[in-house]
Write a structure and sequence with these properties.
The chain is an alpha/beta fold. The chain folds into 2 domains: 180 residues, 3-Layer(aba) Sandwich (D-Maltodextrin-Binding Protein, domain 2), CATH 3.40.190; 183 residues, Periplasmic binding protein-like II (D-Maltodextrin-Binding Protein, domain 2, 3-Layer(aba) Sandwich), CATH 3.40.190.10. It contains 16 helices and 11 strands. The strands form 3 sheets. The protein has a 5-stranded mixed sheet. A 4-stranded mixed sheet has the order 8-9-7-10. The chain has a two-stranded antiparallel ribbon with strand order 4-5. The longest helix has 17 residues. Pfam families: SBP_bac_1 (PF01547). This is Extracellular solute-binding protein. It comes from Flagellimonas nanhaiensis. InterPro entries: SBP.
Length: 383
């Protein structure tokens, strides 16, 4: 039977991003022989920064980050899903949410995407080296400074601190220090922000020199290929590196260091699957989106094809934890206490420009109070 309907999708450029979507699309087409789903890919930076309005004309299915929900709602860029899926199905997905991930794709009572991939900043370690060097993984941010002193000189600790990831680290530490309450009326608490920037500068004194330009994939690629980096305290986790055979060395993942005075862990990441408001085959697109999000697909086909699932059933699945060396069980506490970024209209522009502002300030060693003051001036200008 010939294909009569083609749905176009846009994923992001990592096997975790596109392989499970290709696999689920193939399975979906076997159920719907007249339908074919084709996927293009974009870079990780484009995934975080590219405006949705640049994609809705060309693509039916869009992988998206939850801070875009306010902009998408205001400009009616995405198809609302709450009335196209049964209440029982939505209740089940919410019950199976990994931390706050399901609610993160709502804006003003409109559900604009389904969580198919969930992440937060977690810690990565070479446990073989940690054991050989008789090191103990830090549990708090203060423990980190003691940990640095015990790492032998021919080994390193790394953080991904390119602009995008510096931004995520900055928000994480601010959230940890205030239990998530540090932004009011489009203004970052200047004292909290300045203290966090001072702390990041202090950490930089002990980190691998490439940290300031690396993203998580570059850190994990280095950990997977060489013995230089033993630990990374804050990066978006990738189950791929915890699976045997993906890289030369196995990387283990655990909960990131915290501020023990508060319950917030780290910033929520992950991927939602959304549908363009201009999609000509909305019913089929909704059917595919719900197919990918449901528990049996998430815990089976999606994870088995390199995905990092967005459904709690997949995270608690014994076989998945065995396959990924307990990635899921060892980081679930972080996920359950994750900080959700603001989602109001304009946040995505502030996020992109604010990340560059923080990074430039760090490179120039600008006074932390001045950096945060300029950050708030930017925030207000985008109101």
């Amino acid at each position: 039977m010939s294909v009569e309907i083609i749905l176009k999708g846009i994923a992001w450029d990592h096997p975790r991003g596109y392989e499970p979507l290709r696999a689920t699309s193939k399975a979906f087409s076997q159920l719907h022989p007249k339908v074919k789903i084709e996927w293009d890919i974009r870079s990780l930076k484009e995934f975080g920064d590219m405006p949705i309005e640049d994609l809705i004309d060309a693509y039916d299915l869009i992988t998206i980050d939850h801070p875009y929900m306010g902009q998408a709602y205001a400009d009616q860029l995405l198809l609302p899903l709450q009335d196209r899926l049964t209440k029982n199905f939505l209740k089940e997905l919410e019950r199976q949410s990994v931390g706050p991930s399901f609610r993160a794709y709502y804006f003003d009572d409109q559900l604009l995407a389904l969580p198919i991939d969930v992440a937060a900043l977690v810690a990565a370690s070479r446990n073989d080296l940690i054991s050989r060097l008789k090191l103990k993984l830090p549990q708090t941010r203060q423990d980190l400074f003691d940990f640095y002193k015990k790492v032998p000189k021919n080994y390193s600790v790394a953080w991904p601190l390119c602009p995008t990831d510096l931004w995520c680290t900055f928000l994480t530490l601010c959230a940890q220090d205030t239990n998530g309450d540090f932004i009011k009326d489009r203004e970052v608490d200047e004292k909290v922000g300045a203290n966090v920037m001072d702390e990041i500068k202090h950490h930089l004194e002990f980190l691998h020199p490439s940290s300031i330009t690396w993203n998580p994939i570059q850190v994990l690629d280095s950990m997977g290929a060489t013995d230089e980096i033993v630990y990374a305290p804050f990066l978006f986790g990738y189950t791929n590196y915890s699976r045997k055979g993906y890289s030369k060395n196995l990387v283990h993942f655990s909960n990131s260091p915290v501020n023990p005075d508060h319950s917030i862990s780290t910033i929520l990441g992950g991927v939602g699957l959304a549908i363009s408001s201009k999609c000509q085959h909305a019913d089929l697109a909704v059917e595919y989106t719900s197919y990918v999000a449901k528990a049996e697909i998430q815990e089976g086909m999606y994870t088995q094809n390199g995905g990092q699932p967005g459904n709690l059933a997949a995270w608690e699945h014994e076989g998945n934890n065995e396959m990924c060396n307990n990635f899921f069980s060892n980081t679930l506490k972080t996920m359950q206490n994750a900080y959700v970024r603001p989602q109001h209209q304009g946040w995505n522009r502030f996020q992109e420009q604010g990340a560059d502002l923080l990074h430039n300030g760090l490179l120039k060693n600008t006074a932390s109070a001045q950096i945060v003051k300029e950050l708030n001036q930017l925030y207000q200008s985008l109101d």
